[in-house]
Design brief:
single chain, 2 domains, 11 helices
């Protein structure tokens, strides 16, 4: 049940983010792209801050999300610097030197980079089925972005690949702290990346729009970026970075479908070829059943959980038994060997060792 909910969260995150494209296009007549990016991120950050204050004001701390700890800030700072500061600079540098058709294809490298980093650096398990799903969805995204025009490969293309790689780094660093309060993570990332983009836009002489357009852009950012990123983080808790980012790669298809409805934009011919590839790849992932004998090494950590759960059977002295509500606290896991369907969640990040002798 938890895994199904996580798949739904990833797809809903893609839906909200995909919706940002056609709605942003409606604003581009009044807002330059760089300030618009800054306003969207600022909207996501400010929206999260407002919800955080509201949660405290109405004493809704029973939401039971674990706040950020001091040890989490290096990971969060790295994510902001990689995905919110360095990646946009490299992207703009690359776009200025690369044909648009080439650039749109290269931007699809983010999902591939996220998966490679997750598997290579963080040892996230990806079997042949998930690898095939990732390949199909990536191929579909490439076909969707294929357009006619001038082509060329240059240092600018390398810059775009570097930007996509940094967004992959951002995803994996955020994955490491996905057990913390997603509102706090989005607030810091949104305010940091948004402020940087606005300052950069002003420095480049880009004009700010009128107040009504600013309000609309920030409202759009609060929903299509803020809520989307929160759902993305929640999905990563159970699915890991590779699976979540691959499902998130369906966002362009959602954006294209909404553009057809809202803007009457006719999808290109390759859309109808790419769509079944994307759908089949998503179906492979959604029907995954990863089940094998595995070992949980002793560990102590803190994350949101509930009882009863095969990995959380500890008792609480405060209530004389096992708490039924979802809650968060530091807890220990003993050495355990068992077999059941699972994904790379907080309790299975390091549990793929050999069975006990």
């Amino acid at each position: 049940m938890k895994t199904k909910a996580s798949y739904l969260q990833a797809l809903l995150a893609a839906l909200l983010f995909g919706a940002s494209a056609p709605f942003s296009k409606l604003l581009l007549g009044e807002v330059d792209p760089i300030p618009l990016a800054g306003l969207l991120y600022l909207g996501s950050g400010l929206g999260s801050v407002i919800i955080l204050f509201g949660r405290r004001l109405f004493k809704r701390e029973e939401v039971a999300e674990e706040p950020l700890q001091r040890a989490d800030y290096p990971w969060l700072l790295g994510a902001v610097l990689a995905g919110g500061v360095a990646a946009p600079i490299l992207l703009m540098w690359g776009l200025a030197r690369t044909p648009a058709s080439t650039a749109s294809l290269l931007l699809n490298f983010e999902a591939v980079a996220t998966t490679v980093i997750a598997v290579w650096a963080f040892k996230e398990p990806v079997d042949r089925r998930i690898g095939s799903a990732i390949g199909l969805i990536t191929l579909a995204a490439v076909l969707l972005s294929w357009t006619t025009g001038d082509w060329g490969v240059s240092l600018g293309a390398v810059g775009i690949i570097a930007a996509s790689t940094l967004w992959g780094v951002d995803n994996n660093l955020t994955r490491h702290i996905s057990g913390r309060d997603p509102l706090m993570i989005v607030a810091i990332k949104g305010l940091g990346a948004g402020s940087f983009s606005l300052v950069l836009g002003v420095g480049l002489g880009k004009p700010l729009p009128a107040w009504p357009a600013i309000g609309l852009a920030m409202l759009l950012g609060a929903v299509s970026y803020g809520v989307s990123i929160q759902l993305f983080i929640l999905a990563m808790r159970a699915l890991g970075a590779a699976r979540t980012s691959t499902l998130f790669a369906t966002a362009p298809f959602i954006g294209a479908a909404l553009s057809l409805v809202l803007l009457h934009d006719q999808p290109q011919t390759l859309y109808w070829l790419a769509f079944p590839l994307m759908a089949f790849g998503a179906a492979l992932m959604l029907t995954e059943r990863h089940d094998h004998l595995h070992v949980h090494v002793p560990v102590q950590h803190t994350h949101r959980h509930s009882h009863p759960d095969p990995h959380h059977m500890h008792t609480h002295e405060s209530d004389g038994g096992t708490a039924q509500l979802t809650h968060s606290h530091a807890h220990s896991h003993e050495l355990l060997e068992h077999q059941h369907p699972h994904t790379p969640d907080a309790d299975h990040q390091h549990s793929h060792g050999h069975p006990l002798p």
